[in-house]
Amino acid sequence: MRKLSEDGKRIFTIRDAREAASFCGIRDSYVVESLHHLSNTGWIVRLKKGLYIISSSFPGMTPIHEFEIAMALVHPAAISHWSAMHFHGMTEQIPQRVYITTTKAIVTSRLTKR
Question: What structural domains does the chain harbor?
Answer without folding.
Answer: 2-54 (1.10.10), 66-112 (no CATH)
